[in-house]
Each structure stands twice: as structure tokens, then as C-alpha cells.
Amino acid sequence: MDNTxxxxxxxxxxxxxxxxxxxxxxxxxxxxxxxxxxTLVWISSGSGxxxxxxxxxxxxxxxxxxxxxxxxxxxQIQGEKMGGEIHFTKDFxxxxxxxLPKALVHPNPTGQVKHLECQGxxxxxxxxIFQEIALEYSNDYPSRSEMLHGLLSLxxxxxxxxxxxxxxxxxxxxxxxIWIRFMDSVESNFRRQKxxxxxxxxxxxxxxxxxxxLRRVSGFSPRHHIHQRILLEAKRLAVSSSRPAVEIALDLGxxxxxxxxxxxxxxxxxxxxxxxxxYSI
Amino acid sequence: xYASKPNIDLVRIVRLFPSHRISSKPGxxxxxxxxxxxxxxxxxxxxxxxxxxxQFDFPASQGYHISLREELILMLGCGHIAPFDLCEARGSHxxxxxxxxxxxxxxxxxxxxxxDCDLDNSGLKARMLSLVKLLTxxxxxxxxxxxxxxxxxxxxxxxLTARFVKLINLEIYQRRAICEYARLLSVSRGxxxxxxQTTTGYxxxxxxxxxxxxxxxxxxxxxxxxxxxxxxxxxxxxxxHFSKFFRQNAGMTFSTFKQIFQNG
Lengths: 281, 264
Hints:
Distance between the termini of chain B: 12 Å
Oligomer: heterodimer
Shape of chain B: globular
Distance between the termini of chain A: 17 Å
Strand content of chain A: 15-25%
């Protein structure tokens, strides 16, 4: 996708805005798999399909979608498109030491797409903010990146106001802590660390206790979560790249490609090649 | 979680009516937005940083008074933007004229900021913070524009003050005697004192102290550095001394301060 729609004043570290314009070639689409970027998609007119981690969601106008880092996504929009995409990194929004806004904490990135339907007043406001972002991004006013940061936080605060993640608040605080830390740890270590024992040691709890908490919180064992995370990455790589299975297996930390194919077949019921063929475009 | 979390007003917004008496607290930035100003009847925007409890009668028409705590500016990451930065000679009154269109824009932002917001509601708090950030940057941009129009030549005392403030704002602070600063600036101690007194109203020592507190607050809000590191960077060799210094000047301990203002 060509992002060079207008002459940009300067690059901002960790922030990219691309408005949907006429240059946006219809039908032409690629997969994005950005490891570090959050993406906010705002569409004020037009409809289409958002393909997110092997699943498709219909896109409605006046809706804000949030794609988390690592999620594989593809956007297909028909009709006259209005709106834009913002890609930003965690560092951009949190500014170093300050914690990530609660709305963007994602203990379970495999969940459904985060979206916010806006009506009337709210839709107008978000559309205004996106216009303002477009204006700021394409001009070189003083304190440009601070301004963009402010505008972006304003958009995100709407996510927060509309009450998610709600289920996180209902948990007991210790369970929540373990759940979030475990999922964070899986997110960053799943390629090399596959034993529940190691994760438990990292959190300074026993494997049995970790299993107990995770079963209570999510209904699944830690082993399941680790496997699902590896599988998800395998699927993402299968769909978004044409690398051979052997290479993907090595990338995911399998010493032996046969173990990987067996793992894939056991969890999904189909072989890796079959799966890939099913998604080839 | 924090049982003893004191209730702190980060931002206060008051709608002003004609001949309203304005009072402001120390340690806050005060932005006044007037729909018309008496001499010319123009729209007008002012920013003040006030040292002491002050009251004035502005010959104003309707408008807004927004008072922002110094900590809030740091929380928003706007601590380096004039006129909210430290290099600016503090306490000065800046009068900025603004065009009607930009006045309406500022007023629109102000109207959106949630009033009396309950800080436990993280969504509302985030909204409040980001709106105030937008407002702050807009005000700073007007300030820039106005500065551009203002005569460039600084008075010699102001120049000296600015150079002194720059000197005490170096990245890692080393404790120095005042006469040493005077020597670095090639003036006598008496002249330096006089310059600081007339332009800022503070003595050199008080100004250094304020800078240190400001930098300590900045470190507490925007970095994860522990108190020890902060103390060392600011030239304190004794932790207990720093701890006491911070508590006396900021009104709370370093860790409480960190807990309250680090936006979690």
C-alpha cells in the first residue's frame, strides 16, 4: 500500500496517519502484521470487510476499530471511503514511563475485534478529531507531535469511557494481576519458552496455582493459552507470508519440523499446507 | 487502592462574568480568555504564573479562567513548551491577542472539558487530560505567534535572568555558590541579585530551589527512576536531605507524589 499521499513535513517516531483517499486502490489489499503498532481505523462512510486474524468482520460506517499489535489484519472497503487509519506504537502513546491507557491493555489478543459504534454527537466529534489529526499531520506547526498525541489520547479516551474492558474489573485483584502478567509473558516469550513451569517460576507462583487461577479466570489451562498463542502466530505467518513450513517451525522455536506439523494438525485438525491453501487469495 | 489519596484539583475552570473577582492559587498556571478587553475591546488571552495567593479585579467582560497545576503540565508532557516551561521568566504576565476564530476554537475546547470530573472514572479523566493538553498547546501556539510580533531586544536584566535560568537548568545539576554563577555570567553578585529581583521577584537561591523542585517533580512524573537516582542527578548526596527537601516544597513525599501524578 502506498502511504505517500501528500508531502509529509517530517517523520514522527511511532505515529503514522494515512487517510483514505481516492488514491486508495479498491480491491488491492495486503496483510499487515505490525508487531509493535496499534492501529485505529475510523470509517465515516463506506462499508467493507475487516479481516482480522483469520476472521472477517463487516465494517459499518461511523465506527472506530482498534487493532492490537501483532494482529494480522486486512481492510477492504467499497464505495466512497471517508476516514483514516492511525498506526502508533506503545511508546508513542504512553510516553516512556507512564502506563498504557487502560483501554489498550489487552490480556487476550485473540479475542473479538475492539470496536466502538458512534452515533450522532459522538460520531461528529470523532470525525472532527480525525480531520484535525489529518490537518496536524500534514502541516508542520510547532509542537506537532504533542498535538497529535493529545488528539490521539482524546480518541482513545472514548474507548475507555464506553466501559471496556469490563470483564477485567470484575476479577479479584490478584487473579487479574496473574492473568495479565501471564498473558504478557506469553506474548513476549512464547517462541522460546513453552513450559508452564517456567512461566510459573517467572511469576513466583507454583504451576498448580497458576493453573488454578487461569482456569478460574479464563476457563483454560496455561498450557492451552501457550499453545493457542503459538498456533495463532503459525496461522498468521501461514496467511501473510509464503515462507516454507520448515522455516516457520524454526521461527516458532520448534527444533524439529515434524513436531510442528504434528502440533498444527492436532490443534486444528488440518495440516499446515491445507490450512494455507484454504486462505490463499 | 490508595486509601489516603488526597483530593487534588488538577484543573479548575471558571466561567467569568463582568467584574468577577479572580483568585488564584500559588503553583498554578492561569489562563484567562476574555471575550473583550476594555482598552480596545479586543478578544484577549492571558497566561500568568503566580507565586502567591493573589486576587485581582479584571476589567473584564465574559470569559474563562482556567487554572492548571504545575504538575498537570508535567503530566501532559508539555513542560518544555513556552510559556509553560521553566526557562520563561516566571510570574510574568503575557498578553496575547487572538483572532475571533481562534478564540472560538479555544472556547470550544474549554466547553468540552468535563467539569468536576471524578478522577476514579479513568475514561473521563483521560478525556479531561487530553482536552487540557490540546488547550495548552493551542495557547502555546498563540504565545509563539505573539512573541514573534513582540520586539526582539530584551532588556539587559531580562537577558541576564534568562541566561541564569538556562545555567541552572543544565541536565545534571552541580551545586555551586551564587558568586560562582555570577562569575560564569561575567557580572558581579550584586548585579545578578538585582536583575533576578527586578525581573522575577525571587532571590538567586530561591530560584535555584524552585528549579530543583521542578526538576524533581518532572523526574517523578515522567520517569521510572527511583528517588536515589533523581536525588543524585540533582546534586544531592544525602537521600534524607533530598527527601525532606521534596516534602517541604511539594507538600508530600516523593513516593506519594509519584503515585498520584503518574497517570496510571
